[in-house]
Amino acid sequence: MYFLTEEEKKHLLKGLLPRSRELGIAEELRGWNWPAPPLQPVYDTVLALYEVANSYCPTNRDLYLRRVRRVFPAPSAAMVQGRVLHAALVHVLVSAKRLIYSVGVAQYQTICRELQELGPVNVESELQALAPEDAADLKRKVAIVTEFEKARIISRIQEILFKQPYIGEDSLAVLAIPVIVEQKLDGSFLGLSPNLSTDAFTVCEPMIVDLKFGERRDFHRLTTTGYALVMESLYEFPVNIGCLVYGSFRGDRLIINKDLHIIDDELRQWFIESRDEKARMVYEEIDPGFPAECYQGCHCYAACHG
How far is C-alpha 27 from the chain's CA centre? Predict the structure, then answer.
């Protein structure tokens, strides 16, 4: 799901990358300038990146409940689904890399066969929290994601082997699966958790990738922006491109749409303002009040409305 199509590669290489280099980013909004305003944290409060980026609740009262009143409602069915499907994808990607290294290029047919026979990740413990019909539906979706990703990787391995007769295991793994999944990052320089984890980071071009199952929302781009700032703060190289991958299901078909975007000054400023506003809310224990309208399926609804 993280691999770009030929059309998306063209859009990235001929459109977004040249534009991002011409556009320029304000120096004070690069992550490596974390010791100075506006990136320097104002409040002595450490937030998870998702707490800064998410705004499903219009007033962010879910954050107030969790961090100030220490209320921890059970995750909604949509939250469980997102977590499980993400785990299903990671299972295939990591298993494929492991097979390449352990089996070796000389036995590539064994790699393909064992990958084809790979079963879905075990998610039985996660399914127990769901109603029976929701659990059955999620198991079906896990199988769809698993089969889709296995087919993509096998095709990529075969294509690379046809072109590169002298390739070794390490090069094959990087070319066939050019993403690092769940890369751990320390966000401390920016007032964020020291235990952050990106969904994926592409190796060929520094690009943050985040996977979503659900409706597209404008604040989703704050997730890629936050991780880009953290990577810049740690490694001091520019990260200008983000990619949101939206997965949905139409019957037994997996539909994928991608939002490739430049992480520009506007997004960076938005992320910093959101960080400071939410850190102040937690630090000063400010109740933001109830939103005019709660979103459907909010897992905090009972905590707010009894």
Answer: 26
